[in-house]
Design brief:
Order of helices and strands: HHHEEHHEEEEH
Distance between the termini: 28 Å
Helix content: 40-55%
Largest sheet: 4 strands, antiparallel
Radius of gyration: 16 Å
Number of helices: 6
Shape: globular
Structural class: alpha+beta
Number of domains: 2
Strand content: 15-25%
Number of strands: 6
Oligomer: single chain
Length: 178
């Protein structure tokens, strides 16, 4: 998958969702925009996502409502549920961070390259740089985003973190984004 596409941007999934309908909506938007080049600005990119949000749900992304969409109902208490406020705030912040990384990538170090080769998957990378220390989140860019959205690997200080630490690491960076 080409790096400068919506498909790549949307293969980097958020660490948590609002309701159970959002991962299905996310995947619909990803599939629709899969090979489309990213525009130069985040505002243009988010505008496309907001337009598709409205097309798929019948609601504007800035309506501030929680609502259900039957198409995205696949079981569970909040089945088909979507929060426009969540999409227009938390997911927007997450997408903006991911977009900025794609437009201004942190250099991928050798430890990350080795893991990418070993995984033998089409991998999307999101990196955060904080006080000169880089943390890399590796995602399977072909995975469906229906389940818990943990990366396939997290590289911190040049070493692969234990899978049991992913929740804490992802949670920390999720808080830093928003």
């Amino acid at each position: 998958m080409k790096e400068n596409t919506f498909g790549y941007l949307l293969s980097i999934t958020p660490p948590s969702w609002d309701f159970r309908g959002s991962p299905y909506l996310w995947n619909d938007i990803k599939q629709t925009l899969l090979n489309e080049e990213l525009p130069n600005t985040f505002e243009e990119a988010f505008s496309k996502i907001a337009d598709l949000f409205e097309k798929c749900t019948g609601k504007k992304i800035d309506c501030g409502e929680d609502f259900g969409v039957q198409k995205y109902a696949h079981g569970g208490m909040s089945s088909g549920g979507i929060s426009a406020n969540f999409w227009n705030t938390k997911l927007k912040g997450f997408l903006q961070k991911s977009f900025q990384y794609l437009k201004n990538p942190v250099e991928i170090d050798d430890s990350v390259k080795k893991i990418m080769e070993k995984e033998n998957k089409d991998i999307a990378v999101l990196a955060f740089s904080n006080k000169g220390k880089d943390v890399f989140f590796l995602y399977d860019s072909n995975a469906k985003s229906y389940n818990l959205n943990l990366p396939i690997a997290v590289i911190k200080k040049g070493k692969r973190a234990k899978k049991t630490d992913y929740y804490n690491i992802v949670d920390k960076y999720d808080k830093d984004i928003n």
